[in-house]
Amino acid sequence: MRFYRKGKFMKMNSIMAAAVSATIVALAGVSAAEAQNWQANPNYGSVSLRTGFTPDPYVVNVMSGGTINAAGIGGSCRGFISNAPDFDLYFTGGSSLPLLISVASNADTTLVVRAPDGLWYCDDDSGQGLNPAVRFNNPRSGLYDIWVGTYGNASNQPSQINISELYSQ
Ligand SMILES: [Ca+2]
């Protein structure tokens, strides 16, 4: 089993990998088989935000979808995503506020986020309607790679990523 964690490449035997995976699930994130490439240039750019940023939410227009089935990441990951991230958030935390990443779309979208801890956090329908939302309490500073997936198929759908410390879409 091979995976990246904290930006460092590691190869582990299956017994160790199983033990690590069990720990990771308990933290609500999952390690990934890396079919998608979090290090690739994001499709729709990037931003650096510091806690207390305005305006809140920070909104990014993207197209959801791609050819990769996010279920291969494991955990609750669903939907079809692109190889490269759709958007990269460089976040500087330090307050008591959460970090909320959500999607607004007329389609059934999903979210895949690779957080600074090197783990993957996914959601399908926790936001408005059939849209996803991911919440990080006491968010770490660092890079959040964000994919917006299309549930059930590879079609590309107009979507907005909302990045907020106050509320999710
Ligand atoms: Ca959904």
Question: What would you say this structure looks like, in words?
Answer:
By secondary structure, this protein is mostly beta strands. It has 2 domains: 1-33; 36-164, Jelly Rolls. The protein contains 1 helix and 13 strands, in the order ββαβββββββββββ. The protein has one helix spanning 14-26; strands at residues 2-5, 8-11, 46-50, 58-63, 68-69, 80-81, 87-92, 99-105, 109-114, 120-123, 133-136, 142-150, 158-164. The chain is globular and about 40 Å long. Mean pLDDT is 85; it is low at 1-27.
Note the total helix count: 1
Task: Supply the number of structural domains.
Answer: 2
The number of strands is: 13
Q: Report strand %.
A: 35-45%
Strand order of the biggest β-sheet: 3-7-12-9-10
The third-level CATH topology of the largest domain is: Jelly Rolls
Spans of at least 5 consecutive residues whose pLDDT stays below 50 are 1-27
Classify the helix fraction into a percent range: under 10%
Estimate the mean pLDDT confidence. Answer: 85
Determine the N-to-C terminus distance: 36 Å
CATH structural architecture of the largest domain: Sandwich
- Helix/strand order, N-terminal first: EEHEEEEEEEEEEE
CATH C-level class of the largest domain is Mainly Beta
Largest beta-sheet details: 5 strands, mixed
Structural class: mainly beta
Overall, the morphology is globular
Main attributes of the structure:
disordered N terminus, Jelly Rolls, mainly beta, single chain, 13 strands, four-stranded antiparallel sheet, 2 domains, 169 residues
